[in-house]
Amino acid sequence: MEKEQRRVAVEEGLLPQESAGAAEVLHAFLSTLSWGARQLLLCHSDADGLSAAVVLRAALERAGWRHISIVPTGKGQSAWTAGTLTQVATIRPEGLFVLDLGSRPQPIFPGVPTILLDHHRPLGVPPGATLISSYEWPQAPCTSALVYYLSRTLADMTDLAWVAALGIISDLGEDAQLAPLPGAQAHYGAHVLREATALVNAARRSATGDALPALDALLAADEPAAISHGHLPEAVALAGMRRAFQEALQQSRRAAPTFHDHVALIRVHSPYLVHPALAQMWRRRLPHHIVLVANDGYLPGQVNFSVRTALDINLLDFLQPFRSGLDATEFGYGHDKATGGSLRTDDWQRFLATLGFRK
Fold first, then answer.
1. pLDDT of res. 15
2. How far is the C-alpha of 166 from the C-alpha of 278, rounded, in Å?
3. DSSP code, position 337
4. Which CATH number belongs to the domain containing residue 312 in this structure?
5. Which residues pair with 132 in a beta bridge?
6. 304 lies in which domain range?
7. Angle between the 47-62 and 212-220 helix axes, to the nearest 10 degrees?
8. Can you list the alpha helix ranges (DSSP code H) found in 209-344?
9. Residue 286 and residue 324: Cα distance in Å, rounded?
10. How far is CA 303 from the centre of its chain?
11. Half-sphere exposure of 147 (CA within 13 A, CB side)
12. Contact 187, 164 (CB under 8 A)
């Protein structure tokens, strides 16, 4: 796209000022890719990551690219886990876009041009890759918002503003004053967007963790009501997943915390992704503690956990000293106030002992 188009977008308030430079970086990366090359959008499985992928795929297609695939991460997977890398290898991408999955110094798919679009705290950049991060921007726009802003420099994306809005609600809440959420709420209704967001997130939270039904719903819908009102078969399936998750969450709410110093530990056993929701719930109940919810039923041989707090503490910094002596491949990534990870059972026991908890 010409610089004039990007300048106008910024002046009209369609893009935060910081994204003008980010758009330059994206366009420079795109200039290295051939129009007919296989492009893969590897995204996080929540509503933010899925929305970012749907918006970016549409933008690339409208700008003339073809052969674009979307792959959401599977249950307990990241961009760096073996299961994800195996799936990526079968597609043989010639360009890789990594969306909402953080940024680390470890390689992802060496030899393939790679760009990471993200809003989490970056801990490094894979060798040879390009990173566009909104972590230090005002309001730290989530990935779907970041992608929407950048996509506006490729094509007219107004019709997909509601998709980006779902990602904003998922990560930042429905009160976030971040474009395009307020406009989408005025046009479609806050309740419709809220319900659609919950349904899209239901797939990731299910016992299988398969986000494809949510991705299919986003790709098939022409407005959020198609999802929230169950007008699509995919939306009906998501509603069933949501009910099953709510039942599992209700059962897990019975677990009581144990305490050591300022850390509250809640242990549950569920194949559903209940630990983030429980951690958020207990964060409100225990505002003077760091809340740690551990789920030893999510993945075989692993303990998956979520950490939240209302204290003035950076949780990423809090967890950093504990990385030594652990297989910390999936440990302490994400947000300053919302993080977690996955540890082998033996590593989990060592971590607990270091915190001062008994087995």
1. 56
2. 21
3. S
4. 3.10.310.40
5. 117
6. 253-355
7. 50
8. 212-220, 225-228, 233-252, 275-285, 315-319
9. 28
10. 20
11. 34
12. no
